[in-house]
Specification:
Helix content is about 35%, strand content about 10%. It is α/β, with parallel strands linked by helices and about 500 residues long. The strands form four sheets. An eight-stranded parallel barrel has the order 8-9-10-11-12-13-14-15, surrounded by six helices. It has a four-stranded mixed beta sheet with strand order 3-1-2-4. Bound molecules: N-sulfo-flavin mononucleotide.
């Protein structure tokens, strides 16, 4: 006998921690016993106890989350949605302006560089999402200097070199790639686009670019791997969980699914203080990938704090051999910020480091990746260590000329974060593809003008780095500031 669908009155009775039911996509679920396990903490679920939580649930969790993680006995059955009383919406004061901006946003071909996507995203994204993606730590000095540092490095171009044919391909960790950048790990892709990280996967596939899959993705790890095309290469970015069994399971599953490298994030024993994000009082749920961490989250402080309570602050050099024992994937330390640690990474026998300050989201006034690179390579060469591991850089890369500078200084490749998030959030997959094409076009032009037909022809004699360590936080980075100026479309001129 099929049970009659549940009504609003019956669901509404289960509205407390003692008995907590939620409705997701027309089905009721008893999550009472799951409350303490939810990585997003119980508060966010109790907010929707006895109600329809679909809208809150969708931006963060893949559709199969409940099937995967909630015992079938807790699936209470179909709901007669005609009886569900919709929650009165708290009006978002920005929403009408945002809708207007969406309507009037520039066409994709009016975006000429990566910073144009930033200007559009700032106006068309939900405030919570913009706050989370754009925020840096504390006074955002490092966030700004990541980009400004490139402007303190000047080219020394070679002339009368045959640059008719340009080949910007290279290898990263043994993988051939058509252009020396990768999509770096950035959490909560569904804050910017309903399909989340799989949009970045598809954009990367089109341009034969490597994608680093974040631990804190909105999409499930398997969804992102399933979305890859052919032999497209993916790496896993790992926040190490206090529960090493969970970490081991995630790493070995990633290896089984074909990930080629493990990037262990080492600059975030705690996530930084990102005040734009905190102001938005993030109350979305955390990512599902860590949904078994069982940690409750402090949601009063924005997304970052809410999703990171599982990260293990005790991670140290003594753990590297354990990682080398549980996987055959190449191991890279992401977030190294001084040459002494690069030397230690060589001694530890890892395959690479990413010189990075997490996009200025961690320790404010930490130096930019490119500045660390400029200081590091001469010392590695002096010690004969420069071929011992591969060096990557990320942070503030917004032009192909930034990529060329990094390669001249000895980087194997660079990671790019926010620009692809902004392109995805503003224009979806076409936006990501356009952003990558713009970089490709710029790269070809820059290599031609600097006198380097191939990546191997780029060397440190082509850059002047004498000023790179001269910080002057007073000077704002006008180029990226322009991104906040009225953009191309007339409708943006007045704002
Ligand atoms: C923009 C952004 C960066 C994040 C990021 C989320 C966003 C929205 N998140 S975070 O929530 O924890 O901070 C991650 C992350 O999951 N793991 C990680 O290793 N780096 C994370 N990063 C840092 C990222 O991998 C790069 O280091 C940084 O984005 C490079 O700077 P640009 O954004 O200027 O390219």
């Amino acid at each position: 006998m099929v049970n009659a669908p549940l009504t609003n009155d019956e669901i509404a009775k289960h509205n407390s921690a003692d008995s907590c039911w939620v409705v997701i996509h027309g089905k009721a679920y008893d999550v009472t016993e799951f409350l303490p396990e939810h990585p997003g903490g119980s508060k966010i679920i109790l907010k929707y106890a006895g109600k329809d939580a679909t809208e809150e649930f969708d931006p963060i969790h893949p559709p199969d989350t409940l099937e995967k993680y909630l015992d079938p006995s807790k699936h209470m059955g179909e709901v007669d949605m005609s009886t569900i009383v919709a929650e009165a919406k708290v009006a978002d004061p920005y929403e009408s302006e945002r809708q207007e901006n969406i309507k009037n946003k520039p066409t994709l071909d009016q975006c000429y560089n990566l910073l144009d996507f930033e200007a559009v995203a700032k106006r068309v994204m939900k405030k919570t999402a913009w706050a989370y993606y754009s925020s840096g730590a504390d006074d955002e000095i490092t966030l700004r200097d990541n980009h400004s540092a490139f402007h303190r490095i000047w080219f020394r171009p070679r002339v009368l070199v045959d640059v008719e044919k340009i080949d910007m391909s290279t290898t990263m960790l043994g993988t051939k790639t058509s252009i020396p950048f990768y999509v770096t790990a950035t959490a909560l892709g569904k804050l910017g686009h309903p399909e989340g990280e799989v949009i970045l996967t598809k954009g990367a596939a089109k341009h034969n670019v490597i994608q680093m899959i974040p631990t804190l993705a909105s999409c499930s790890f398997d969804e992102i791997v399933d979305a890859k095309a052919g032999d497209q290469v993916q790496w896993l970015q790992l926040y190490v969980n206090k529960n090493r069994e969970i970490t081991k399971r995630i790493v070995q599953h990633a290896e089984k699914r074909g990930c080629k490298a493990l990037f262990i994030t080492v600059d975030a024993p705690q996530l930084g203080r990102r005040e734009k994000d905190m102001r938005s009082k993030f109350d979305d749920n955390g990512s599902n990938v860590q949904s078994t961490s069982g940690e409750s989250m402090d949601r009063s402080q924005g997304a970052a704090r809410a999703i990171s309570s599982f990260i293990d602050p005790s991670l140290s050099w003594k753990d590297i051999p354990w990682f080398q024992s549980i996987t055959k994937m190449k191991i890279v330390l992401k977030g190294v910020q001084r040459v002494e640690d690069v030397v230690r990474a060589c001694e530890a026998g890892v395959d690479g480091v990413v010189l990075s300050n997490h996009g200025g989201r961690q320790l404010d006034t930490a130096p930019s990746g490119i500045e660390i690179l400029a200081a590091t390579m001469p010392i590695l060469r002096q010690r004969g260590l420069d071929k011992k591991l591969e060096i990557f850089v990320d942070g503030g890369i917004r032009r192909a000329s930034d990529i060329v500078k990094a390669l001249c200084l000895g980087a194997k490749g660079v990671g790019i974060g926010r620009p692809f998030l902004y392109a995805m959030s503003s224009y979806g997959l076409p936006g990501v593809e356009r952003a990558m094409q713009l970089l490709r076009d710029e790269m070809e032009m820059n290599m031609r003008l600097i006198g380097a037909p191939t990546v191997a022809d780029l060397d440190e004699s082509m850059v002047d780095t004498r000023a790179v360590a001269l910080h002057s936080t007073a000077i704002k980075d006008t180029l990226s500031l322009r991104a906040y100026d009225p953009l191309l479309a007339p409708a943006f001129r007045s704002k």
